[in-house]
């Protein structure tokens, strides 16, 4: 049911909030879905699409956990995302998670 609803939203352009223009036409899309894809962050940074980069930035702030915090910290550094960097560091320190991922963190720092 949910999958068919999402498919209908895409096929009928329901609640789309961005249009992607390409050489062979354009497509309506949803920023939240696009922003959830990390390879997109590299592209929007490369082509300086600031509003979509900010959407990606906001999306990455939403669900920081021990499984993704180091990857997000690396992305924050690579793509100059200050809020993400602060949130990752706060997560590691405030919640004591730095001890849970001590070996991974040490490898990351090196």
From TrEMBL:
Identification of the protein by name: BTB/POZ domain-containing protein
Pathway the protein contributes to: Protein modification; protein ubiquitination
Gene3D superfamilies: Potassium Channel Kv1.1, Chain A
